[in-house]
Amino acid sequence: MIVELISIPAIILLLGAFALPLIPERLRSSSFIIFPAIALAVLWTLPEGSHIQAPFASYELHLLTVDALSRIFGTIFALITIIGGIYAFHIKDLGQQSAALAYAGGALGVTFAGDYFSLFIFWEIMAISSTYLIWARRTETTDKAGMRYLLAHIVGGGFLLTGILLHLNSGGSFLIDALPQDYTLANVLILLGVALNTAVPPLHAWLADAYPKATITGAVFMCALTTKSAVYIMIRLFPGWEILIWTGVIMAIYGTIYALLSDDIRAILSYSIISQIGYMVTAIGIGSELAINGATAHAFNHIIYKSLLFMAAGAVIHATGKSRLSELGGFAKKMPLIVGLYMVGAFSIAGAPLLNGFISKTMITGAANAAHLEMVILLLLIATIGTFLHTGLKLPYFTWFGEDKEEIQVSDIPKNMLAAMVMGAFLCVSLGLFPNLLYSNLPYAIDFTPFSVYNFVEMTQILLLTFVGFWLFRNKFNISPSTTIDTDWFYRKPANLVFTVFVKFPALIFDIAEKKVASAVDRVADVSKNPLNYMLPTSPKSPVYTDGFTSPLHLALGLILLSFLIVSLIVLL
Amino acid sequence: MKKWHWIALGVIAAITLVLEFTLLADYDSHWWNSVPAFYMLWGFIGSVAVIFISRWLGKLFILSDEDYYDR
Q: What is the rounded CA–CA span in Å between residue A512 and residue A515?
């Protein structure tokens, strides 16, 4: 049994997280990469089916259920952990390294969980371990942001667990399988729990709040794992739920608008995640084989180009110590390679032909077309335009080009960070040129080619004219230091009020009560010193000195003792 | 943006138009395909629309001071 457990990819990574502290520091970064590499090798040798069962109360846990869908998600999670490990190779923070491995272990556990309880356990491991990647910055702001992140995920986990328990209670299957499209309380709660991790508005604010505050390397893992493992579960549980079609469209536009307004480079990329996941959620809502393939392929590609973008943004922060567009600008010549690698990611996310975003976005559009959802297509195109505007144009323009704000000191980037970015860019290009590498591993075997003249004309025309629009109105973008008010307002702004009502006010009441009681006790003590004062108000108010009674008492007690001795002598003798 | 940048973009645009009017002359998968160079129009209108709508929403309620939550 123990040996069997080691064949679970998630357990390999969790063991790695516990083993890292025992490994000498100079070998730790290399070891970090070995664990996901082993997991990747193992998951490709596993045949399809449920391999390991363990009894749990009256249920049977399915810890390792493999099929084409879980394998492709497991592959990308392991792959990005390797790339993230290379990017973070120079980091000497054991806490961050262990947390990142445990976090990736959680994501792989969710991917291969065959039943709801295993899913829930790994879901929570992800929430807790990822929080440390925010706290590792060790500033007051990030401490608070990490706590908000954790609380949001505890609420989401609560929804999920309550939903699962209600689902089981009403005779639902213990094994993870597509749920019928009924809006029962159990289904709705499970959907809410999953939607929170998928960052569906209004449950999304944790993402844009926390990711820009995570460590440079931590954000790379975060942008890849939490939301995409939730997308995976959404594909498993809610394929074809029609509400998701329009939910996804709203997400895509919502994320775009906020990304266009944000000033922090990683906040722009965070909102862009929400926008991109909108595409996947729409595809899950459509639910056809092509759509599910599209959602899977888009999640796969998204992880690659989004982590590349986060890595490049991290490189900017590493080199300059700044993260706001208002403070950056005019140093493209000092880091040309980073700019180039970033632009590969940016064109990929925008869906430019011959890069990997194109091969999955066209699949989702194709699925929407087959389902005759023309408004959805047009609105998703608006999101594509917005994506190119904020990630492809606004961010690089104001970060590296634009006018110099001040003299910016650019320090060197570690070679390992560059290597990881080159790997990401290589994957973007190779998948874009050879889409069958990905298509042949998707859950459904279908015939689809993205390289049609129509798709090429469509995307090229859209991107060209979006650029023209940007160039004409490039001074209309917000690049001043600002906060974007989002749904986290509802739990951040009233925090003072809640603190006043539930902490300060009760504390005040207790304070008053304590003082009253203490003064009452004082008075009682005062009275008991000399009760005569109160019984005979005319007597002099002088304190009583007990010393005055000492000699008579000595005499009385001595007499009692003496008589006791005499009596006992008489009786005993 | 240098002059040759614009020329390069113009050439690519011309290629897409040629492709659209030759190879795709008889396609009609969507109602909007009857509009010539529709995706150019949509790209331009869309970009201008999202720039100004987001700017308006930003002024309306989204954008606030940097220290909004610390006050």
A: 5
Mean pLDDT score, B22-51: 88
CA A438, distance to chain mean position in Å, is 26
- ipTM computed for the complex: 0.96
CB A105 within 8 A of CB A10: yes
SS3 A56: strand
DSSP bridge pairs for B63? A484
* Buried/exposed code over A233-272 (b: 16+ C-beta within 10 A; e: otherwise): bbbbbbbebeebbbbbbebbbbbbbbbbbbbbbbbbbbbb
Partners of residue B52 in chain A, C-beta under 8 Å: 473, 476
CA distances from A29 to A16, A227, A314 (A): 12, 26, 19
Question: A52 with A63: CB under 8 angstroms?
Answer: yes
Euclidean distance between the first and the last CA atom of chain A, given in angstroms as a whole number:
84
Are A10 and A62 in contact by the 8 Å Cβ rule? The answer is: no
* Chain B residues inside the 8 Å CB shell of A483: 63-69
| Contact state of A465 with B55 under an 8 Å Cβ cutoff | no
List CB contacts (< 8 A) between A499 and chain B.
none
The answer to whether the beta carbons of residues B55 and A476 sit under 8 Å apart is: yes
The pLDDT score that the predictor gives to residue B34 is 85
The tokens describing A509, both together, are 């009441």
CA distance to partner chain B, nearest, from residue A106 (Å)? 32
Instruction: Find, among A328, A243, A330, the residue nearest to A284 by Cα.
Output: A243
- What is the pLDDT at residue A66? 95
pLDDT digits (tens, 9 = 90+) for B11-36: 999 999 999 888 876 676 788 888 88
Test B16 with A464 for CB contact under 8 angstroms: yes
What is the rounded distance in angstroms from the CA atom of residue A199 to the CA atom of residue A152? 11
Evaluate whether A308 touches A421 at the Cβ level (below 8 Å).
Answer: yes
CA within 13 Å, CB half, A475? 2
Beta partners for residue A49, in sequence order: A66
Has residue A61 got a pLDDT over 80? yes
Considering only residues A57 and A516, tell me which one the structure prediction assigns the higher pLDDT. Answer: A516
B20: Cβ contacts below 8 Å, ≥ 6 apart? A457, A461, B36, B37
**Which residue in the block uniquely carries the two structure tokens 């959907």?**
A191
